[in-house]
Amino acid sequence: MTALILAYLATGAFSGLLAGLFGVGGGLVIVPVLVLLLPGVGVSADIAVQMAIGTSLAVISLTSISSTWAHHRHGGVMWPVFARLAPGLLLGAYAGAWLAHGLDGAILMRIVGIGALLVAAKMAFDLKPTMAKPVPGTPVLLGVGGLIGSISALIGIGGGSLTVPFLSGCSLEMRKAVGTSAACGLPIAMAGALGYIVAGRGVVGRPDGSLGYVSLPGFAIIALSSVALAPIGARLAHRLSPALMRRAFALLLVVIGLKMLLG
User: Fold this and answer.
1) DSSP assignment, residue 236?
2) For the chain, first and last CA: distance in Å?
3) What's the CA gap between 53 and 48, in Å, rounded?
4) Residue of 219, 201, 192 lying closest to 100 (CA atoms)
5) Rg (alpha carbons) of the chain, rounded to whole number
């Protein structure tokens, strides 16, 4: 049990550092680690991926509150844009959780692996939109929010790797795109976590101390160390080479993605 707690703490610390360094929720780190750890505490292999994603989203729902507040204090959140994206994000994330519930664990693990590789490509090559367009109307933002929410909940991330490129391509300066994306991570994570909690009720193979597909001990310990280490990551972000950091993180995601794809 001590080894498990230490593993949870290390996972949270690393994801917190990544959150501070890159403005991501750390889900693509939390999910693969939990897939490895959860079978050791009695989680059925058939639902280990769903449990890992649900727990990851629960952690992100907590850590994204402080991130959103920090960006808001610096005027980095475009609340009118957020308000038009949020309903789609909520519905999409909730639906994504139910979609994951209906998928075979092996298939879901491969989807997470593909997601990690796509994010790695974006980070490595610093891919950005080539043309800036105006922020679209409410119907389009609702649809985009639904798509981003569903994909994010399906692979256990806060959606920053999807939301930031979209918003920066809609003529928002990068600081406001990142800040608004941080705010968007809150409805994604909360609705996604709720979906995993509801969908996982009564599912066989869950360990003691779980709420649906969310491991409460894993959530509490990972969130604790993640919140503690995020400020350190933010300070490091101002001292290290951004290009070097992006490529190092991309390499890590390639390893994670291949591991999830190949087993």
Assistant:
1) H
2) 25
3) 9
4) 192
5) 17
Per the listing, tokens 């400020």 go with 231
Distance CA 222, CA 17 (A): 12
Q: Residue 250 sits in which domain range? A: 2-262
Helices (H) and strands (E) in the chain, counts: 10, 2
| Of 146, 119, 135, nearest in space to 168 by CA | 135
40 DSSP 8-state letter: G
Overall pTM surpassing 0.85 (yes/no): yes
Q: What is the pLDDT of residue 130?
A: 60
- pLDDT, tens digit, for every residue of 121-161? 877 777 666 656 788 899 999 999 999 999 999 999 888 88
Neighbours of 134 (CB within 10 A): 7
* Number of domains, the chain: 1
What angle (nearest 5°) sits at the alpha carbon of residue 212, between those of residues 145 and 261? 65
Contact indicator for 196, 60 with CB cutoff of 8 Å: no
Q: DSSP per residue over 108-135, as a string? A: HHHHHHHHHHHHHHHHHHT---SS--PP
What is the reported pLDDT for 58? 95
Structure token digits, residue 50: 């769903």
